[in-house]
Every structure is written in structure tokens, then in C-alpha cells.
Design a protein that fits this description.
Length: 144
């Protein structure tokens, strides 16, 4: 478990394409350029943790900061959690989630949240095994 490096961007982009395909397609996933611009550039808006075995990246977690005004608390939003199919059920996902929890504590955060696609039964079962709790609200969004 380590923070992503600029040199990891191409492999993370490849894994992001696989993540998007696994969830049924949709919009284009992150490009190498977007990872470098938004994750390592002067106006960094997210950071990525990678699970690696040597030089081999097994999975990644992409997080960005959040704030809950109702509780005056800081936290993280987990945007992506992805583990390669050949590395699943080996503790990689749990290690990434533990890494996100550690990163949340490092920034003085009290919580982290994420969404899981309703059709992702494997992901839902994984999060349930970790003891995740559903929020009572539904996510809403507006494209701009």
C-alpha cells in the first residue's frame, strides 16, 4: 500500500478502463492526462492509493476531500475502489479500504463515504463484510 506516483498514471488509467467496463460502460474513464492534471498537478483535487506487489499494481483507491457542515467534520469521499480480477479475494480490497481509513485519520477526518452501483452485487457483498452502513439519503446530481 502506497501513494500513487506520476509513473503509475498509465496503469491506473488502464485499471480505470477495466473498472468502467466491469460496471457496464458509461462515460470515458480517467485518462493518463486527467490523472496527471488532477492528481499530481498544481490544483490537485484527488489522490490515489495503490496496492502493489513489487512493480505490479493490483488495485487502486481514488479519494477526494469532503466536509459535512451539519457535523462540522472533515472526511474523504472514495470515488473509485478497484482490484484486478486476478487479485480479488486476497485481501487487496480490504487493504485499500484500510488505507483510505488511515488517510482519513491522517487528515483529521472522522468519516469516509462512497457509492456502489446497484448492479454491483460483488461490491455490495464486500462492503457488507466490512461492516459498511447505508446512508438514509439517496445521491442526487446535476450535470453541468
Amino acid at each position: 500500500m502506497r501513494p500513487a506516483r506520476r509513473g503509475d498514471a498509465a496503469e491506473i488509467a488502464r485499471l480505470a478502463r477495466q473498472f468502467t467496463a466491469d460496471e457496464g460502460g458509461g462515460k470515458d474513464p480517467m485518462s493518463v492526462a486527467a490523472i496527471l492534471r488532477h492528481g499530481f498537478g498544481p490544483r490537485r483535487v484527488f489522490w490515489i492509493l495503490v496496492a502493489a506487489r513489487g512493480a505490479d499494481i493490483l488495485g487502486y483507491a481514488l479519494v477526494y476531500p469532503g466536509y459535512d457542515a451539519g457535523e462540522s467534520s472533515v472526511g474523504l469521499h472514495l470515488s473509485d475502489l478497484f482490484v484486478r480480477a486476478d487479485a480479488r479475494r486476497q485481501g487487496v480490497g480490504r487493504a485499500l479500504m484500510d488505507g483510505v481509513a488511515a488517510e482519513t485519520k491522517r487528515i483529521g477526518g472522522a468519516w469516509y463515504t462512497w457509492f456502489v452501483v446497484k448492479t454491483n452485487a460483488e461490491g455490495q457483498a464486500f462492503y457488507a463484510r466490512l461492516g459498511a452502513k447505508e446512508l438514509p439519503s439517496l445521491p442526487l446530481y446535476i450535470e453541468v
